[in-house]
Write a structure and sequence with these properties.
It contains seven helices and no strands. It is mainly alpha-helical.
Length: about 180
C-alpha cells in the first residue's frame, strides 16, 4: 500500500499530462497530490520518512518554480536531484555509524557478511547516480512526452530490474541456516 501511495502523485502527474499535454498543468497537479500523499501517510502512521520530506520539499520548490516561471526544466531536474540525494545518503552511511543504510533497513530480515552489505550499498549508490544521469539524458535529448513516459515507466522499470538483480545477488550470498540432523531413535 505504501509503495502505491508513494507512486500515486507520479501517476497523477502522468495522467494529467496525458489528458492535457501540458507539463505545467501536470506539475500543478503533482504538488497537491504529493502534499496529500505525505499528509495521508502522517495521518495513518503518525510519522513521515526523511526522504518523503525531502521529496515533498523538492516537489513544492521545483514544481512551484516550474509553474511560476512556466519552465519545465525545474520539474525535469527533480528526479535527478532526488536520486543524487539518495546516492549521497547511502554513500554517507558508510562513514556514519557502524552499518550502512541498506543493512539498517534489511539487516533484521537476513544475515549477510559485512562485505556483502557494503557491496549492496555501493550498488545502490551507483544505481541512484545512474538514474539521475539517465533522467537528464532523456529529459534533454528526447521529447517532453518521452520524458514523461520515462519518468513513470522507464524509471520504475529500471528500479524493478535493479531490485530483482539485488535479490538474486542476496540469495547467492546469504548465509543459509544450518540444517539440524534428524533425531534417530
Amino acid at each position: 500500500m505504501k509503495l502505491l501511495l508513494d507512486f500515486l502523485p507520479i501517476v497523477i502527474f502522468v495522467a494529467v499530462y496525458k489528458y492535457t499535454s501540458d507539463i505545467i498543468m501536470a506539475t500543478a497537479a503533482l504538488i497537491p497530490a504529493t502534499i496529500l500523499s505525505v499528509g495521508y501517510t502522517w495521518f495513518k502512521e503518525k510519522k513521515i520518512e526523511k526522504m518523503q520530506i525531502v521529496t515533498l520539499v523538492l516537489v513544492i520548490t521545483m514544481g512551484g518554480a516550474t509553474v511560476i516561471f512556466q519552465d519545465k526544466t525545474f520539474i525535469q531536474w527533480k528526479p535527478s536531484v532526488i536520486n543524487w540525494l539518495f546516492a549521497a545518503t547511502f554513500l554517507g552511511s558508510h562513514f556514519i555509524g557502524e552499518k550502512t543504510i541498506i543493512e539498517r533497513i534489511m539487516g533484521a530480515q537476513m544475515v549477510l557478511e559485512k562485505k556483502i552489505w557494503i557491496t549492496l550499498s555501493i550498488a545502490w549508490v551507483a544505481f541512484f547516480c545512474f538514474m539521475g544521469i539517465i533522467n537528464l539524458y532523456v529529459a534533454f535529448n528526447y521529447s517532453e512526452a518521452t520524458w514523461v513516459n520515462f519518468k513513470l515507466f522507464g524509471m520504475l522499470g529500471l528500479t524493478v530490474v535493479f531490485i530483482i538483480i539485488q535479490g538474486i545477488y542476496i540469495s547467492l550470498n546469504s548465509e543459509a541456516e544450518e540444517e539440524l540432523p534428524p533425531n534417530n531413535k
